[in-house]
Amino acid sequence: MKVLLLVNTSASAVTARARVVIQKALAADHDLNVAETSRRGHATRLAQGAAAAGTDVVVVLGGDGTLNEAANGLAGSATALGVLPGGSTNVFARTIAMANDPIEATGQLVDALASGRRRRVGMGSVNGRYFLFHVGLGFDAAVVEQVEKRGALKRYAGHPLFVWAAVVTWLRHYDRSRPRFAVRFGDGALIDDGYFGICLKTSPYTYLGNRPFNVAPEATLDSGLAMVTFRSLTLATILSAAASALGSGRRLRRNRMIDQRSNLDSMTVTGHGRFPYQVDGDYLGESDSLTLRYEPDCLELIVP
Fold this sequence. Notes:
Blueprint: E1 2-7, H1 16-27, E2 31-36, H2 42-52, E3 57-62, H3 64-74, E4 80-85, H4 91-95, H5 102-115, E5 118-126, E6 129-131, E7 134-138, H6 139-148, H7 151-157, H8 159-173, E8 181-185, E9 190-194, E10 196-200, E11 206-208, E12 211-213, E13 225-230, H9 235-245, E14 258-264, E15 266-279, E16 282-302
Helix pairs in contact: 1-5, 2-3, 6-8
């Protein structure tokens, strides 16, 4: 099998030792080529080139941002995506039951390749860009922006940095005095007082250490999109949601300040002014309008 290994050498868990072990394991039974990403968007172009050249599988060793880029390069092609966790959180890899250790996950991937375990799955899209697991709107994206401003610390501080950024953003870096956007759904329903939103393709939303944050447990590889809209950013609302998310996440439905919907085909988010957003953990700036859609059967995925 023709395999391309894409490596983000800047990712938190990518070490020289791990890379050598992974390359040897994949090269044992496959025609392996290796490429390193060097800038934002590079993984998309490398994956597109691999698909055009008839590569069977593109394996990504990196974080969720690199994985998202590769998935965008492979969408609609017959080339499969293989996932190895190399970042600080590795949401998608853990969502599909890959081990969080890259060497252990390599064993799972080698077995899956030998057994032909692959499936065609859907993704979400936001203004034409695909996402694997979520888009964050408003407060969530502002937190990611603060983390990315401290990228050098992310490799070492990991989850404590995210917790610190969430607290600092809530206190100083996000306007909580007014709603930031409206969400219109395909059936015509409208939520016009959104302070913070998460559109999910899979669950969980993220991880805190080994604990999953479940805000929309109905979101799966086989479902449409789920949308969770916070209509308040009071401390009581945030703490109640966090407590529920550390469990099953189902109690969020009973909170009158949180609107939760699942198995959606599309929605449009219109800003009351510009608002920040992030895609699969990468901050993409501000927008005044986003169109989100479910894109079925657009990615071939290697599964453990």
